[in-house]
Design brief:
About 25% of the residues lie in helices and about 15% in strands. By secondary structure, the protein is an alpha+beta fold. The chain has a six-stranded mixed sheet with strand order 1-2-3-4-6-5. InterPro entries: Kinase-like_dom_sf, Meiotic_Drive_Suppr_Kinase. It comes from Trametes cubensis. This is Protein kinase domain-containing protein.
Length: about 1400
């Protein structure tokens, strides 16, 4: 049974006679489909979750197995599911058949002895199962009872392993004042187990009767090795010398259920065993982990301890089906919401752990849009499923009473316990899955609207409607209707919208005609979209959705008259002239006709001026529920919206509060949800009729979007290292923390983990270590990518991004910062010096005892002692003023002092000093203690220092102490620090430069060095010195000053391709990477090891792939789509058509070019000029499997050249110049086929090689055509062997220039489409892009709208191919002394 659709109310009516496991598996499964998310949690997330659980006593991933399928919803009225419907007695066997548990007289008459002769074996028995056999063999001939091992003892019972005539049994003795009640409960339970043979299933232990045991022998000294002090205490409180006991079988190797032995295979067996207990009509009473014994190897679970059990004893008995199923639900909760999630993170929850169910509030209550409907009592799950889901949409799914479980989820409060560390790791895990999966996606359970994926279509959900009747036609207004145009609404909409007045009422006119706004495309015609929306409103009006105010009211539709067309055009022209459009933007105009020549039409619907679209920012749980109810009501009108992924189609409309209302309602109660724009809708009368399953899928899709995406956005900071925003950070640093940058835009620390996707093998590390020791450079210094805080200083001249950074303002309250106080209570003469921490030429640090506390005393020595003392005391004063030391970022200072004892080599009679907190267990930062958490702590602590306007100023590596146990870093040694005094000497740049230096130390030195185990010495080479100056050329466009990352993205990325991304001054960081020279240090041994490891992955993995850093063109995968893609072009205008040459144009064929190409290409002469002719016809090469026709390919390439010619790409030389296109005559066809025949007969290709011939027509019978373009002499296609960094940059710029013509090539993975023309006679090389028959333009969307994001992705893919594939591969494969991408520097 799926854990989504809760059928507990159905199961309980026949439980336990019918097992939940007997439900049709095609509909439900009893256990979750998966126990962990689709992608296993990374180790760092598990560690963060474990730390979270230890701190808050709550496992933050407790929900990972979904919803409990056996828990009755809180909405259910107990009286409606009580046992009077199906009382237990109706199906119970005769009570007289159940015999009471028999008394074992043989056991009572036996003598009780301890195991005296085998004490050592008894000790072994506690740890090893084999000792049981040894003890049994030794005592087989004895008829006495030999108590061998004490298994458990408490105030109510004692459990012993006993040898009875050589067989090992378990005796459970009942002690204390409650002994009689517990004994009666357990014997009654085992009597039922014997009657139903429950032990045969392995669910319980076999019982051999009961006996009354004499306890007096236990007082003998001989029992001291068997009897524990706890038993003696319980015996003393028992008050009797005898105790009743039950005799049970022993299970060798059994252990209590815990997180260490739970597994996905064992979990269902625990529930099955408990069901077998319930099948004997026994309620366990305490289904806790200590009451379940498991044998992990055999995947067996046994329930024990029935002292709190309740057995059915007749109609007057209080045992109910609800109680039995509730206990099964409790066991499901124990296994799937406690033990399995706890085992995933390794947390052994104690008795003080928080029950996550206690953190669930009441379900969201919203005003119902349909009358309440009493939910029928179904006898089977299939019947329940058909009643609830198959009745949709004719029965509103929100109208059932009781409601469907989890359809309106109860509010959860466990997010209040979330720690920053845990949320950060959640975001890291989300980033590693490209932002598409949130590890918390099951926080609100699963959508209850979907059946199991194994369901057979049509067996549960209906294919047709029961009560559907086609509605009457929507009202048509006369074309002569007087319409007064008042205002154009939303001028940038895809089609014209007008506020109009008809009579005395105002309406919204939505106009449909063949004209569309430039840059906007649909797969359907405007007339088809109009008919869809008209049909939708016919249903909405007829079935009451308009009256319910969940959609706009509709006045009707109208065919537009010339007067209406004129008034509409006049209004559009007025709107344009008033400046409502940005420069270059064009509105959607009005044509009097549709595409088929029929009259243009319009819909008149209700005008809603104050509607606000839903968004991530304004959605609440109450609003989510209201939206879902509104969609369900819409479906009740037999209309599927079809475009609810566009949130602008869902409006929140405030309602006017009633004046007489004494207490105002909450905001969410004073608003309604309105759905608009039905031009993508479907009804039963559409060409593709909407079915009930389609409507249910639309509702469940929105549910999933709300409760597994929007409601789960964790508020942590992410900052990618690709797109450099150091200048943006610097403009508000340190007032604003880099960790406060908008969520999901960029990552502050390297993505995921610090290792590559495939961890380095030992041989690999050894090869890298050998090279590092030989050359002084770690060959993997780049594994953590680019430094996000280092200013990009690309180019040799021009302005810099730093120019827009304002100076630091005078800190507030500068006069309020008090100097350090002298430590009056500190008598240096009385100090007890414990040990020396550090001794140097400039200072000495000793650990001293001050009263009962241990402190550090730092004394300043040397000629600059006063200078260093003043600097550090000033910094400490600032830290005290700003509270920097309280979170543990720096050592807390307790004041200054002066030691008046002469010190060696100091030359003075006294030395000034500071009294600081001790940091026990601290170590200097090194490769031996660096970790991801410590690396982040280093940066966060340094930011806290900078936030106090203190520049640390010292050598960073010797100024950081770390605690590996606490994973914490503290900054020390501020003897060279400088504090901002308001004079302007300190700048934001210097602060951020120090921050960047710290980032470089931890992420480009220590962590890479720790990966290979290299302790770099003072003579190690700084890898930054191996980077040459960037060859990036400064563009003509000054880069704007951005104050936020969003502004930076808008200015640089969102302006592409209309602003060439290579035209910025300064250039975009790493768009043209600086030449790296560290490949010159590669040793043959290191390259050999890399090649060996690469071959293990079939050549697909190159450990050098990050050598040139991260591509700067794409934001983080979690970035909201609207943030990086406006979705349309701002200045696009369709180009004029290309010139067509006459069919009788004289053409001289010179050569058949590329005979193996998919279509014929010839070198020709027209007049005195040489051109290239590319022919399109229906004939193809036999192996050509292109899904598009030749005519479609021709129209795509012709349209591309129209854009390239109009927008200047041809003139710029990045594509061939275009001469024209023509329809081929019979003479052209004869000459072309004759040229192909001569090529074939010449033997230029193998005999079995097929050619593409020329047909006189296209597939549709129209004449074949050809494109005449520039013939480029001497061009060569780029390849792995000839690519250089200069050519890569040329090609990137050429592709960007093509994009600037609103053309996306679409086939750049074929490198034959990228040519390099070597320069001659002093002319530079140039890059040329060819073959645009797979291209996309705003005129040919190829099935989807072309937007800026598509072009940016194509440029990004090319960057990754060049700089993350080709260059790293050249580094390890090229054998020449100099690599092809290397130049003289």
């Amino acid at each position: 049974m799926s854990a989504s659709f809760n059928a507990a109310a159905v199961i309980v009516r026949r439980y336990p006679e019918y097992s939940p496991w007997d439900i049709d598996r095609a509909v439900y499964l009893v256990w979750p489909f998966e126990y962990t998310p689709c992608h296993p949690f990374p180790a760092s997330l598990k560690e963060a979750a474990l730390a979270h659980a230890k701190r808050t006593k709550l496992n933050p991933l407790h929900f990972m197995c979904g919803s409990n399928p056996f828990a009755l919803s809180d909405y259910y009225d107990v009286a409606r599911v009580q046992d009077s419907l199906l009382p237990l007695s109706e199906s119970m066997p005769g009570l007289s058949e159940i015999s009471p548990l028999q008394r074992n007289r043989d056991v009572e008459s036996a003598q009780i002895n301890p195991v005296e002769e085998h004490q050592q074996k008894v000790c072994d028995l506690r740890a090893s199962v084999t000792s049981v056999t040894e003890v049994t063999d030794a005592l087989r001939d004895s008829e006495d009872l030999h108590f061998a091992d004490e298994l458990h003892v408490d105030q109510k019972c004692a459990v012993y392993r006993v040898s009875v005539s050589g067989d090992i049994k378990v005796f459970k003795l009942y002690l204390g004042p409650t002994a009689s009640a517990y004994f009666d409960a357990e014997t009654a339970a085992y009597a039922r187990f014997l009657h139903h043979d429950t032990a045969a299933s392995g669910a319980v232990l076999r019982c051999y009767g009961w006996a009354e045991i004499d306890l007096r022998p236990f007082k003998d000294a001989a029992f001291s090795s068997v009897v524990s002090p706890e038993f003696c205490d319980a015996f003393s409180a028992h008050g009797s010398e005898t105790a009743k006991a039950i005799i049970l079988e022993d299970i060798p190797g059994a252990e209590p259920l815990s997180i260490r032995n739970i597994s996905p295979e064992l979990a269902p067996e625990i529930l099955r065993s408990l069901y077998n207990v319930h099948a004997a009509y026994v309620l366990h009473g305490a289904p806790d982990r200590r009451c379940a014994l498991v044998r992990p190897a055999e995947k067996q679970a046994v329930w024990v301890d029935f002292s709190c059990a309740e057995s059915y004893a007749g109609p007057s008995n209080a045992l109910t089906r609800q109680a039995l199923l509730a206990e099964l639900a409790e066991a499901w909760y124990l296994v799937f919401q406690r033990l399995i999630p706890d085992s995933m993170i390794g947390w052994d929850a104690g008795p003080d752990a928080i029950d996550p169910r206690a953190l669930t509030g009441t379900a969201v209550k919203a005003v119902a849009l349909s009358p309440s409907r009493l939910r029928p009592l179904s006898s089977t799950v299939e019947e329940e499923f058909k009643t609830i889901l198959s009745g949709y949409p004719e029965i509103d799914i929100f109208s059932w009473d009781p409601p469907i479980s989890n359809l309106s989820p109860a509010r959860r409060y466990d997010h209040q316990f979330d720690t920053d560390e845990f949320l950060r790791e959640v975001q890291a895990a989300r980033y590693d899955t490209q932002g598409y999966r949130n590890p918390l996606y099951k926080w609100y359970g699963e959508c209850p609207l979907y059946p199991s994926p194994y369901i057979v279509p049509g067996t549960v959900l209906r294919r047709t409607y029961l009560h559907y009747e086609p509605p009457p036609q929507l009202r048509q207004l006369p074309s002569s209707t007087v319409i007064e145009f008042l205002e154009q609404v939303h001028p940038l909409n895809k089609r014209p919208l007008f506020l109009v007045r008809v009579g005395t009422e105002r309406w919204l006119m939505k106009l449909f005609n063949k004209e569309r706004r430039p840059g906007h495309h649909e797969e359907r015609t405007e007339k088809e979209l109009f008919e869809l929306e008209r049909d939708a409103y016919a249903h909405l009006v007829h079935y009451g959705a308009c009256e319910a105010r969940i959609v706009p009211r509709c006045l009707g539709w109208i065919e537009l008259s010339p007067t209406h067309i004129y008034d509409a055009l006049k209004m559009i022209r007025h709107t344009r002239d008033t400046g409502s459009f940005e420069r270059g933007e064009e509105p959607a105009w009005v044509s009097p006709i549709f595409e088929d020549g029929s009259c243009a039409c319009a819909l008149l619907v209700e005008y809603i001026p104050n509607g606000v679209p839903i968004s991530q920012e304004n959605l609440t749980m109450e609003r989510m529920d209201r939206v879902l109810r509104t969609i369900s009501r819409l479906h009740g009108a037999y209309v599927g919206h079809g475009d609810l992924h566009t949130w602008s189609n869902v409006l929140l409309v405030p309602e006017r509060a009633e004046e007489e209302q004494e207490q105002p309602e909450p905001e969410s109660e004073r608003e309604r949800v309105v759905l608009i724009d039905f031009d993508w809708s479907a009804t039963p009368q559409s060409k593709v009729p909407v079915k009930p399953s389609h409507l249910l899928r639309e509702l469940s899709t929105v549910w999933t979007k709300f409760y597994t995406a929007v409601a789960l956005v964790a508020g942590t900071v992410v900052m990618a290292t690709g797109f450099n925003v150091s200048s943006v950070i610097a403009r508000r640093y340190p007032e604003h923390s880099p960790w406060d940058i908008e969520f999901a835009v960029y990552r502050l620390w390297p993505a995921g983990n610090f290792l590559p996707c495939n961890p380095f093998p030992d041989a690999f590390k050894q090869g890298a270590l050998g090279q590092a020791q030989a050359t002084g450079v770690n060959p993997f210094h780049f594994v953590c990518m680019n430094n996000p805080f280092a200013f990009d200083r690309s180019g040799a001249s021009g302005g810099d991004l730093e120019d827009g950074i304002e100076p630091l303002q005078s800190p507030p309250g500068l006069d309020d910062i008090l100097p350090l106080q002298r430590h009056e209570d500190l008598d240096v003469a009385m100090l007890n010096v414990c040990d020396e921490v550090y001794m140097g030429d400039e200072c000495v640090i000793v650990r001293v005892s001050v009263g009962d506390e241990v402190k550090l005393l730092k004394l300043f020595l040397g000629t600059d002692a006063d200078k260093h003392f003043n600097a550090e005391s000033a910094a400490c004063a600032r830290f005290l003023h700003h509270g920097v030391s309280s979170p543990g970022n720096v050592l807390k200072c307790h004041g200054c002092t002066e030691c008046r004892k002469a010190l060696n080599a100091h030359g003075k009679d006294s030395a000034k000093g500071l009294v600081l907190d001790d940091f026990p267990g601290a170590e200097l930062l090194s490769i031996h203690n660096i970790s991801p958490d410590i690396a982040e702590s280093v940066l966060r602590s340094l930011y806290a220092v900078h936030a106090s306007l203190v520049l640390q100023g010292s050598h960073i590596r010797q100024s950081v102490l770390v605690s590996p146990a606490e994973q914490r870093a503290i900054w020390v040694d501020f003897s060279r620090a400088s504090c901002d005094s308001g004079s302007g000497a300190m700048t934001r740049q210097t602060l951020l430069a120090e921050f960047a230096e710290a980032w470089h130390l931890v992420y480009q030195r220590l962590i890479p060095d720790s990966l290979i185990g290299w302790e770099a010495g003072p003579d190690a080479i700084d890898p930054r010195s191996l980077t040459a100056h960037s060859n990036a050329l400064r563009g003509p466009r000054p880069r704007p000053v951005s104050l936020t990352v969003e502004d930076e993205i808008e200015a640089v990325l969102n302006s592409y391709p209309e602003i060439d991304i290579f035209s910025w001054d300064p250039p975009v960081s790493n768009l043209t990477p600086a030449l790296r020279l560290d490949h010159r240090l590669d040793t043959e041994e290191f390259l050999r090891v890399i090649m060996e490891e690469r071959e293990k992955f079939y050549g697909f993995w190159n450990p050098m792939r990050s050598w040139y850093g991260m591509c700067p063109l794409s934001p983080s995968p979690g970035t909201p789509y609207f943030l990086v893609d406006p979705g349309q072009f701002r200045h696009y205008l369709a180009p004029p058509p290309l010139p067509q040459l006459p069919s009788d144009t004289a053409i001289d064929l010179l050569e058949h070019i590329c005979p193996t190409a998919n279509r014929p290409v010839f070198k020709i002469r027209i007049g005195q000029q040489t051109w290239l002719m590319k022919i399109f016809s229906k004939d193809r090469r036999p192996d050509d499997t292109d899904h598009r026709t030749a005519k479609e390919r021709f129209e795509i390439e012709r349209d591309s050249y129209a854009h390239l010619s109009h927008y200047g790409a041809c003139d710029a030389g990045v594509v061939p110049r275009f001469h024209g296109w023509m329809e081929l005559s019979h003479t052209h066809l004869y000459d072309c086929n004759d040229m192909i025949r001569r090529t074939r007969n010449s033997g230029a290709l193998p005999k079995d090689q097929e050619f593409a011939w020329v047909s006189p027509i296209f597939e549709d019978g129209s004449l074949a055509c050809a494109l005449i373009i520039e013939y480029i002499e001497g061009a060569e296609a780029i390849s792995f062997e000839n690519l250089t960094m200069a050519w890569m940059d040329l090609m990137m710029r050429a592709v960007a220039r093509v994009h600037g013509s609103y053309v996306c090539h679409g086939d750049l993975e074929n490198w034959n489409n990228m040519l390099i023309v070597p320069g001659r006679e002093g002319r530079p090389d140039r890059a040329v892009v060819i073959d645009f028959d797979h291209a996309m333009t705003p005129n040919v969307p190829r099935g989807r709208c072309l937007g800026p994001r598509s072009m940016l992705s194509e440029l990004e893919d090319l960057w990754v191919e060049f700089y993350s594939s080709v260059l790293p591969m050249q580094r390890i494969l090229c054998k020449e002394p100099k690599h092809p991408h290397a130049v003289e520097v």
